[in-house]
Amino acid sequence: MSIPRKHPEDAYAPQLGGDYQKNPELQVLADISSSLSMDVDVEHLLDSFLGTMVRLSNAHAGIVRVLTSDGKGLRIIGAEGLPQETLAAQNIMPLETALCGQPVGGSIKNLPYLFECKGNTAKAFGMEDGWVVALPLRYKSTLLGVYNLFLKKNQAIPEDISLLFASISEHLGMALENARLTRENLRITLMNERQMLANEIHDSLAQTLAYMKMRLAMLREVVDGDKPELTEKYLTDVDHALESAYSGLRELISQFRHRMDPRGIVPALQELLESVTRKIDAQVKLDNQVRDLALTPDQEVQVYRIAQEALANICKHSYARKVQIVVEDTGTHYRVSIIDDGIGLYAAGHTGPGMHFGMNIMRERAERIKGLVEIRSRVGGGTRVTLVFPHAPQGIAA
User: Fold this and answer.
1) Residue 332: CB partners within 8 Å, gap ≥ 6?
2) How far apart are CA 392 and CA 398, in angstroms?
3) CATH 3.30.450.40 fits 8-182, yes or no
4) If DSSP codes are grouped into helix, strand and coil, which group holds residue 192?
5) Per DSSP, what are the bridge partners of residue 272?
6) Closest Cα to residue 377, out of 328, 330, 313?
């Protein structure tokens, strides 16, 4: 029993006509290029094109494998024309034998795009007859995956198909590398965000709880000493600290539940401004003066969280009627300013520890992207929070 399959043209490729219908090789390359421009799962893409590879080579079976997470083997992600029991037995193969089912002489990185498994029969893969061709999927010198095609004895692959397979190998090898880098960047971003969350909890909630613990110890002493005036004072202190801790925790939960718009930082900032209008009666505006805002994923996250913190302070303390975010490009740095016309950040009664913690958090986030945050009260009232950070090195931005 073989795995049921779908052809790639059914899943991704546009309906092409003209020269593409006359030249199926061009259509395959067009299909792959079109699919790579979409936001699709690369493993599913490789699996989908296996049927095309089998048909082009006139093979009677095929397997596609990708590198395991530990980098020591290749695992099956798709197969055509092979029994299920064979696939189960050969699910993961060591890297040094994965191309042909037996050890390959020489260095894998020096192998040609289309590698004939000479001397090895299909028996190595559980097949009784024929021979195997391997199409390594590489990025530079790193093997990231492989197509295995099972051919009949003495069957050859035409030269034009071999050249096509070389181009396919290059395209799909690059797609695998891009997918690997994307996963790595997401993993790093997630780890960094968790560390930042831990820092925020420490800087706000943990310090408030530590204050409460000290006040409770003092409260116990005055209760034992029968001092009602001090008892009432320390009870009030603990009550205010508990209220502050509860409010801070709810705010942290609210911030991290609020997901950034997946379309990018500009729609995300617009969404944050719109949320301000649901909390206070203010006019909001996003003034984006940068036509091509090319940020890395980590830069987007930090800009978003800094703007979120600044807008939260505006909603809680400023009594602003106008709120604006301005995005500018100085040539070497980006500048993001959050501006309001409220009573000013340091107005009487609005300089509690929660606000200072928020400022420290914004500065820590700015440092993560090699930037600086400046917070100033404006002449005539209001506050300007300005984040300045350098452009990402060329080729790194998402």
Assistant:
1) 390, 391
2) 10
3) yes
4) helix
5) none
6) 313
Contacts of 33 (CB under 8 A, 6+ apart): 171
Give the lowest-confidence range in 170-179, 315-324, 336-345.
Answer: 170-179
User: Which tokens go with 165?
Assistant: 């397979």
Q: How far is the CA of 119 from the CAs of 108, 143, 166, in angstroms?
A: 17, 22, 22
* pTM of the complete model: 0.47
- Residue pair 334/266 in contact (Cβ under 8 Å)? The answer is no
Do residues 74 and 96 lie in contact, with contact meaning Cβ atoms separated by under 8 Å?
no
Buried b (16+ CB within 10 A) or exposed e, 359-386: bebbbbbbebbebebebeeeeeebbbbb
DSSP 375-394: EEEPTTS-EEEEEEEEPPPT
Count other Cβ atoms within 10 Å, centred on residue 331: 5
| Token code pair at residue 160 | 């034009």
pLDDT per residue over 271-307, tens digit each? Answer: 999 989 988 989 999 999 998 888 888 899 889 989 9
- Residue 385 is predicted with a pLDDT of 94
Q: Report the topology of domain 262-398.
A: Heat Shock Protein 90 (3.30.565)
Check if 8-182 and 262-398 are the same fold: no
> Do the beta carbons of residue 330 and residue 290 sit within 8 Å?
no
Strand partners, 376: 384
333: left (phi over 0), alpha (psi -120 to 50) or beta: beta
Name the residue ranges covered by the structural domains of the chain: 8-182, 262-398
d(CA 186, CA 171): 23
Q: Is 340 helix (H, G, I), strand (E, B) or coil?
A: strand
